[in-house]
Amino acid sequence: MLVPPEVPNPTFDRGCWIRLSDGPDFSGQSFVVVGPAELRAFDLATIARFRRRVSSAETGPRAVAKLYSRENFTGTALTMGSSARQAQVGRAFGASHRRVEALRLSCKD
Predict the structure, then answer these.
(1) Structural domain boundaries of the chain?
(2) What span, in angstroms and rounded, lies between the C-alpha atoms of 17 and 4?
């Protein structure tokens, strides 16, 4: 489920989410994915423009996220635990992989 960042949502309030921002240090525009969720490719019109521009990410208190540099959960993977903040996603992937192409989001009980 995609949730606009400022809209109250009971599912979002349960803490299983990831917020992806197109600016470094959590700046710029963002969108939230509420889990559990699997996005094999960032091909939805709403988020396709973000795939090359995801610069920072943060997870909710019950979320565990895995970001992938290639579609279908392949390529370099970056795992983010609960309440994690990654201010420079591209740096975490390394010089050769600077974009997020897929995402797995699971929820802790």
Answers:
(1) 2-107
(2) 12
> Which fold would CATH assign to domain 2-107?
Gamma-B Crystallin; domain 1 (2.60.20)
Amino acid at 102: A
Question: How far is it, in rounded angstroms, from Cα 71 to Cα 100?
Answer: 9
- Output the pTM of the full model: 0.81
Q: Under 8 Å CB-to-CB from 57, ≥6 apart: which residues?
A: 18, 19, 20, 21, 65, 67, 80, 85, 86, 89
Our CA dihedral for 55, 31, 42, 56, rounded to 10 degrees, sits at: 10
Each residue of 19-66: pLDDT tens digit? 988 888 888 888 888 999 998 887 655 565 665 577 889 999 999 999
